[in-house]
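Q: How would the structure tokens look for this protein?
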Amino acid sequence: QLQFVESGGGLVQPGGSLRLSCAASGFTLDASNIGWFRQVPGKEHEGVSCIHRSLGITYYADSVKGRFTISRDNAKNTVYLQMNSLKPEDTAVYYCAAAHCWSGGTSKKGNSWGQGTQVTVSS
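A: Here is the predicted structure in token form.
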């Protein structure tokens, strides 16, 4: 079973930055497309960004385009989500997961979610 561990969340003021990390257990991340998703209470998970395993494709939701950057460090078996110019509406629990990834979107593979990491943007 694929397991992901998200970290790097926290409380930040509007306009601030955070870098989320996604580590894998039991497999190498470079063998899979990886997506970042977020969820606020009462709403469905939203696909935020993804990176294709081999085609160099990345995707960003319109709400984060120009502010968030996804990257991967295969040597560290980690995928990152650099989040700049954070807004209160970015407040959510962020998850990474194996995903379908194309230039126009992303969707999660499988049904289970990891623990996630809480991002709170507030003054």
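The CA atoms of residues 13 and 123 lie 5 Å apart.

The longest strand covers residues 92-102.

Upvote if useful.
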